[in-house]
Amino acid sequence: MRDALGIFEMPQPRYAAFDEPDEVVGLVERIGDFPCVVKPVGLSASQGVIRADDASSAVAAATRAQKISGGGRLLVEQYIAGNEVAVEGLLRAGTLEVLAVFDKPDPMEGPYFEETIYVTPSRLQASILEEIQRTTAEACAAIGLAEGPVHAELRVDGERAWIIEVAARSIGGLCARALQFGAGISLEEVILRHSLGMSLEGLERELHASGVMMIPIPRAGTLIEVGGREEALAVSGIVGLEITVPPGRSLVPLPEGDRYLGFLFAKAATPAEVEASLRSAHALLTINIA
C-alpha cells in the first residue's frame, strides 16, 4: 500500500521497511527524525504499533513489534501529529461515496495506538471534510480499488489530510452497528445490495449522531466479570452494550493484544452528546480482572 501511494505522491508518512531491529535508527535518519512509529507489516488493529521518541526506544520498539508478530518485516514511519478520523465508504464504478466520517476524540499520540471512541458525523469543518473525501478517493484510485467497501484512516494536520491506512474492507469488529441507513438498514446490507447490483436509492445515513466505544482492556490477567452493565445501559443515549470476552478468558492489552473487551453504542441529537454518553457509560463499568 505504501509503495503504491508513493508512486502517486499521495500525502502519507515517510516510511522504510526493514528486517532487523538494529536497522531502525539509520532508517529514521533517512525518513526524517523522531518521533517515529514502528509496526509489523502483517498485523492489524493497532497490534504491535509503537511510537518511539529516540534511538534507544526505537530499537526497543522494533524488537518488541517483531516479537509480537512472530518475526518478519517491520515498517518505520514518520509520526504525523493531528486529529485522526476514520472514513467509511463505498466505491461504485470507481467513484467513492462517503457513507460516514468518524471523529476519534481521544488523542492518538502513543506510545500505543488503541482506538476507543468513534463518533459521526464529524465535527470538523466542511473544507477539511472535503479534503478528507478527496484524499481518500485519490488513495483508493492509487492502489487500484474501484468497487466495494472502503475503510480508511487519516490524520488531519491543519488543512491537510494524511493517509494512514486505506483498505478494501468495511469497519471492523462490531463497530458497523453504529451505522444505519434509510429505514434501519445496516452497513452490511448496504454492501450486499451493492454487490448484488440492487438499488441504493434513499439509503442515506440516519439523521441523528451515533457512535461506538471499543472498550479497552485495562491490564493483563484473567477476566472475572464486567459489572455495572445495567447502570451503563441506563445512561441517556446508550442503545447497546456487548461484552465480547467471556469470563475466565485471558486478557492481553495492546500492543501485544488483538481484541477489545467489548463495545458500547450510543445515539443522540449531537456528536457531543454521543461522546458524553459513551464516556459516562464506560465509567460505570467495573472490570474485575484477576
What is the fold's blueprint, element by element?
Blueprint: H1 2-7, E1 15-18, H2 24-31, E2 36-40, E3 50-52, H3 55-69, E4 74-78, E5 83-92, E6 95-103, E7 117-120, H4 126-142, E8 148-157, E9 160-167, E10 180-181, E11 185-186, H5 187-195, E12 209-215, E13 221-227, H6 229-233, E14 238-243, E15 250-251, E16 262-268, H7 271-284, E17 286-289
GO molecular function, one term: metal ion binding
Keywords: ATP-binding, Ligase, Nucleotide-binding
Domain ATP-grasp: 2-196
CATH class of the largest domain: Alpha Beta
Strand percentage, roughly?
Answer: 25-35%
The low-pLDDT segments are none
- Work out the number of β strands: 17
Q: What overall form do the CA principal axes indicate?
A: globular
**Strand line-up of the largest beta sheet:** 1-4-2-3
- Largest beta-sheet details: 4 strands, antiparallel
**Whole-number average pLDDT?**
96
Task: Using the 3D structure, state the CATH architecture of the largest domain.
Answer: 2-Layer Sandwich
- The CATH homologous superfamily of the largest domain is called ATP-grasp fold, B domain
Q: Summarize the helix and strand pattern as letters.
A: HEHEEHEEEEHEEEEHEEHEEEHE
Q: Radius of gyration, Cα only, in angstroms?
A: 20 Å
Helix content: 25-40%
* CATH fold topology of the largest domain: D-amino Acid Aminotransferase, Chain A, domain 1
How far from one another are the termini? 41 Å
Class by SSE composition: alpha+beta
